[in-house]
Amino acid sequence: MSHKLGLIGYPLSHSFSPSYFAEKFAQLGINDSEYLAYSIDEIGKINKIFESGVTGLNVTIPYKELVIPFLDELSEEAEEIGAVNTIKIENGRKVGYNTDVFGFKASLLDQIGDARIERALVLGSGGASKAVKFVLGKLGIDFKIVSRKEQYLTYGKLNRETIQNHKLIINTTPLGMYPNVDNCPDLPYEGLTKHHFLYDLVYNPEKTLFLKKGESAGAGIKNGNDMLILQAEKSWEIWNEYLK
Ligand SMILES: NC(=O)c1ccc[n+]([C@@H]2O[C@H](COP(=O)([O-])OP(=O)(O)OC[C@H]3O[C@@H](n4cnc5c(N)ncnc54)[C@H](OP(=O)(O)O)[C@@H]3O)[C@@H](O)[C@H]2O)c1
Questions:
Q1: Active-site annotation, residues
Q2: Which of 20, 147, 157, 225 is 20 to 30 A removed from 58 (C-alpha atoms)?
Q3: Same CATH fold assignment for domains 4-98 and 101-226
Q4: Cα angle vertex 205, ends 152, 112, to 5°?
């Protein structure tokens, strides 16, 4: 079955997915399919892409929420989170899914193994933070959002004790992402121990300053690379369901 796939977002300068799927098509010997980058400066332009006969799309910043009114149906997870990163178009119906949830959950479980984590800090309250919150809720891990916004726990209120009481810290902010590799979330890192786990959704660079600080305290560290691959693979699985 041939695929006409793509990624929508804006801007789409260094996106992972187009080259990932080009490589996948090459590996599987698929030469009748495509995965294109659609850099659209306004979400309404998605209608033209639908009209072109695409069979599936990935959605990235800033459209994961804005795309929802253009869809006919949402998976349970996408509905609950309020964000879509994968669309499947079948018989004209556009169905939205969230595979970030799958990617984050599987990679987090791989990181923490059988460690019992009771409380977590989630840094940032944007789109990716929603998928993270959803997964932590499902896993029964109590969490607090740390944010620049007053309605949450703000960075200035964190102290050594807060860090000691939260053994899992997840960065969902872009701080430390290439080229701003000298940035990191403003935390009292001195509270970290070898019993902590630091998870950074950022995958470029491989080891952000946030993760380096965790590593030097002996904490377990993980970047967003596995999540990125797992969410792409889950999208691929969704696009291939019922098509075999
Ligand atoms: N590995 C993966 O598969 C994967 C998947 C999705 C996203 N990501 C990565 O996750 C990061 C966030 O993506 P997103 O879609 O959630 O972006 P987003 O919706 O823009 O949210 C990012 C959040 O980070 C916080 N933030 C932004 N700039 C900040 C600053 N200068 N200082 C402190 N906090 C700041 C903000 O939260 P507050 O306003 O609450 O402070 C903001 O809501 C990106 O680096 C993205 O590449 C990775």
A1: 64
A2: 147
A3: yes
A4: 60
Residue type, 17: S
φ and ψ at residue 158, rounded to 5 degrees:
-80, 140
In the chain, where the domains are located: 4-98, 101-226
Please work out whether the CB of residue 77 comes within 6 Å of at least one atom of ligand 1: no
The topology under which CATH files domain 101-226 is: Rossmann fold (3.40.50)
Q: Is the CB of 188 under 6 A from ligand 1?
A: no
Number of other CB atoms surrounding residue 133 within 10 Å: 18
The pTM for the full model equals 0.95
User: Cβ neighbours of residue 73 under 8 Å, at least 6 residues apart?
Assistant: 93, 94, 95, 96
pLDDT digits 0-9 by tens, 45-103: 999 999 999 999 999 999 999 999 999 999 999 999 999 999 999 889 999 999 999 99
| 124 Cα–ligand 1 center, Å | 6
